Amino acid sequence: MIPLMKTAFSHEYETRRALADFLMRAPKLSMDDQCFTFEAEFARKQGAKHCILFNSGGSANLALLQALRNLGRIKAGATIGFSALTWSTNVMPIIQMGFNPVPIDCDPTTLNVMSAGIEKALARRSIDALFLTNVLGFAGDLPEIKAMCEDRGILLLEDNCEALGSRFRCGLTGGFGLGASFSFFVAHHMSTIEGGCLCTNDSELAEMLVIVRANGWDRNLSAEQQAKWRARYGIMSEFEAKYTFYDLAYNFRPTEITGFLGQQQLQYLDENNQRRFENHVALERVVASNPDLIPIRRDHMEQPAPFALPIVCKTPQLRDHYLQQFSGAGVEVRPMIAGNIARQPFYKIYDPEPHDLPGAEMLHECGFYSGNYPELTSRDLDTLASCVTCRSR
Questions:
Q1: Are 5 and 371 a contacting pair, CB within 8 Å?
Q2: All domains in the chain, ordered by first residue
Q3: What is the 8-class DSSP label of residue 172?
Q4: Using CA atoms, how far apart are residues 288 and 290, in angstroms rounded to an integer?
Q5: Which of 207, 201, 144 minimizes the C-alpha distance to 174?
Q6: pLDDT digits over 36-91, tens only?
Q7: How confident is the model at residue 332 (pLDDT cuts 50, 70, 90)?
Q8: Sign of the CA dihedral with 96 first, then 97, 103, and 104 last
Q9: Can you point out the beta strands (E) in 42-165?
Q10: Which residues, at least 6 apart from 10, have a Cβ–Cβ distance to it below 8 Å?
Q11: Element (H, E) at 282
């Protein structure tokens, strides 16, 4: 069988042994120096000024919107556009925060929202912010989208949980908006078992994210930042400050295990992403020769870091056929993430209105994916190639 993932970590044995050694000697396991060291290393890797580590990418998304609400950057009742093809925790925080969600259709040939699709959506209604998902390691035309948002005064955010390391000639995905979330869940580009983070170049936002991450207190701020918050609210003693809470927040703190594993796995990221890309290219050639399938267009990007191997069939009937081929070969597959999110049960509860989303609907009915990871062997790739080879039906 070819599963969605084969190992919990890159360089599995070495990582597990290092983790065992760390657990035996670590003075504490709650959030501390290992987390802060990883934050600095990841910020450098991403080319961002700030990185704030969380217990998951989903928590990071909720914290981002909470922080922006706390700062007044997104007002109560604001309208937020989001990718119609996405994961649940990109959309749920919009609803949980009381904002008005607006699904924006994607292009089936790129899997992502494109600037042309945003133009069409804006012709129907205005939006205050745009929370884009960079799907399965691919992305829309982010430089054009960023320029459009700047021209129109739209706040741009990225859910980059599936696209760590994907890049354009002008920069990495996760670096085009005010803030971007990342996930380090098992089977993602790098694993800390659970875990995620937010990157931003905005110091005020980063400061609020640190508050939002940990109960609303100032314990993890710098001494200068603490003094500012305490003076603002008349907190006169360290004793009182220990249990003073400044704004709405959660407990989304990671552990030292997260920080330690992040440092271990970050060193393998570039090597692993190159292998993921090579795997994609090997299958891409076969897909391009099959008239039943739609190749994923990536010519607007410099190089994606494919999270999975997406398959888009031209009809639902063809998808049934190819699903049988994958299943018969022992290949584990999944739907195209959450498909058309407007069809999900949770979404219909809060937004029952019909939405015209032909691109997301097409991917919902005609798409699926299999796993992509560095441990795929040449035999695995041959098996996958045989599954996407056109056959008589």
A1: yes
A2: 12-266 (3.40.640.10), 269-387 (3.90.1150.10)
A3: E
A4: 6
A5: 201
A6: 999 999 999 999 999 999 999 999 999 999 999 999 999 999 999 999 999 999 99
A7: very high
A8: negative
A9: 50-54, 79-83, 100-104, 129-133, 155-159
A10: 190, 191, 265, 268, 272, 374
A11: helix 269-288
Instruction: Using the CB atoms, write b or e for 369-381: b if 16+ within 10 Å.
Output: bbbbbbebeeebb
- HSE-CB for 142 with a 13 A CA cutoff: 31
Q: Which residues contact 317 (CB under 8 A, 6 or more apart)?
A: none
pTM of the model: 0.96
CA–CA distance, 298 with 140 (Å, rounded to integer) = 9
Q: Which residue has the tokens 């920069």?
A: 171
Instruction: Provide the pairing of β-strand 367-371 with 333-335.
Output: antiparallel
Tokens of 373: 């990871």
The pLDDT, as a whole number, for residue 392 is 55
Name the residue among 190, 194, 195, 206 with its Cα closest to residue 48: 206
**From CA 140, how far away is CA 133, in angstroms rounded?**
9
Provide the angle, in degrees to the nearest 10, between the axes of the packed helices 33-46 and 256-266.
40
CA distances from 310 to 150, 201, 276, 334, 384 (A): 31, 32, 12, 10, 12
- The contacts of residue 358 (CB under 8 Å, 6+ apart) are 105
Name residue 23's amino acid: L
Q: What percent of the chain has pLDDT over 70?
A: 99
CA distance 99 to 82: 12
Q: Around Cβ 21, how many Cβ atoms within 10 Å?
A: 10
Name the 3-class secondary structure at 393: coil
Q: Hey, what amino acid is at 331?
A: V
DSSP code, position 137: G
**Which residue carries 């925060």 as its tokens?**
97
Structure tokens at 142: 């982010």
